[in-house]
Amino acid sequence: MPVMVFFYGGAFVDGAGSIYDPSNMAIQGNVIVVTVNYRLGILGYMASSALSAQSANQVSGNYGFEDQLFALRWVRQNIGAFGGNSNDVTIFGESAGGFSVCAAIVSPQGAGLFQRAITESGPCGEPLPSLAGAQASGAAIVSALGCAESSDAASVACLRSLPTAAILAEQSTITSASNLTSLVAFFPNVDGALIPQQPILSLALGAYNHVPIIEGTNRDEGRLFVALGFDLNPQVGAITAADYPIAIQSVASALVTESSGLFAASGTTGASSSGSNAAEVNLITHEILHEYPLANYAGPGEALGAVLTDGLFSCIANISNEIFSLSVPTYGYQFDDENAPTPELPPVSFPYGATHTDELQFLFTLASTPSALSNAEKNLAGVMQSYWSSFARSGTPNSLQTPAWAPFSIAAGNVQAHRIPGWNSDSPRSITATSGWACWNKPSSPASLTS
User: Fold this and answer.
1) Closest CA to 416 of 153, 424, 221, 408
2) How many Å apart are CA 365 and CA 376, to the nearest integer?
3) pLDDT on residue 451
């Protein structure tokens, strides 16, 4: 039987395979679904110059990713005993799990371990921290843990002697801030070994594992992060109109910092002075505010959510889908159920819409939403599960039981809209990405997407 291996999300600090019950997909699709666990947070993704110096390959920080690769090797060696085909494996994941799928796609260590890939809300063009940057962040953690010793060997020995509770307590001081920075505190890094270079460069150069791919995002990804950074953060509170331009300036500053880091990692020259950095931040801030004026939205939450959705998800997915489509069968989607249940999230000052993680309850039975789907949403869930499992069986999501899903191409830009009947459509169908589908210039209303 075809095999599907799922990597869960949770910002690389939270989550467990046991949260996701894939029984419906396995039964309906006649596939085997494997869920796995992997190391998280400090234990899974903290890099350190001391740890790198003490390792055989002189790198550190990608321990959780190594766990995922180990799981795939285990599946290859053992899944036959469960009736699975070790040469017919599809990896899929959401958010951090989606980025993990992308890491496996560009990693030489992933070669031959899977034949297809699905990434949900974890676009493969997303920049990753460099090893040097990850080690700099790790140095602060090592110091806070009291292990900044005079030698690398002593520092590593100190770290390994710490009780787990002490490590998790330090981790919580980083992740409990409930701001956007804390959500990316632990990520895979470009170590030159497991992940040779920035994923987008690997894709552009064709230096990746060429397998058919589904890559997609949710229509309102960014609204969850606005909620976490503002409304649900007791130190900040509900986002206001006055907060909006300040938040956009922070986004612009992060873009400039990220760009400088990418230039440095590639050995070229980025912004050369704080003055030029400030000018660039001001220019980008002005451009974003021009493309996303607050007057075009019902409120600042929706406006900032649109900026984050496009800048962190839609645009990047569009770019990587374009590159993928040049070499492998590629299918793009946008999850569009604006009324998807969110019982685990408190109300905030704006509607969540089809936000980050919302599609998961359409693929799995989750403890938080065991029976929250309406009948129409249950029908959509069946269609999406059919798409995913059909792709695992044949490399195409299409079957006689589901609406046709056209492959993505640069010329057509087809993106499948996953939505319930009655919202701008009578069934899931293809929508065409306009020239402004993403990259800071998305149409302000999903209704402007044309079939």
Assistant:
1) 408
2) 16
3) 22
Percent helix, strand, coil in the chain, to 5, is 45, 10, 45
What is the value of pTM for the model shown?
0.91
Q: For the residues 326-346, what does the mean pLDDT come to? A: 94
Residue 164's Cβ-count burial label (10 Å; 0-12, 13-18, 19+) is exposed
Active-site pick, 221, 280, 302, 377:
221
The question of whether 314 is a catalytic residue gets the answer no
As its CATH architecture, domain 3-228+307-439 has 3-Layer(aba) Sandwich (3.40)
Per-residue burial over 184-220, b = 16 or more CB atoms within 10 Å of its CB, e = otherwise: ebbbbbbbebbbbbbbbbbbbeeebbebbbbbbbbbb
- Going by C-alpha positions, the residue among 318, 417, 381, 312 that lies closest to residue 11 is 312
Element of type H or E holding 119 = strand 116-120
**Rg of the chain in Å (alpha carbons):** 22
Q: Are strands 213-218 and 116-120 parallel, antiparallel or unpaired?
A: parallel
Q: 394-443 pLDDT, tens per residue?
A: 999 999 989 999 999 999 888 999 888 644 444 444 444 333 333 433 33
Domain ranges of the chain: 3-228+307-439
The answer to whether 367 and 357 are in contact (CB under 8 A) is no
Summarize pLDDT for 77-133 with one digit per residue, the tens: 999 999 999 999 999 999 999 999 999 999 999 999 999 999 999 999 999 999 999
pLDDT of residue 441: 37
Is 95 a catalytic site residue?
yes
Q: Which of 48, 95, 100, 389 is catalytic?
A: 95
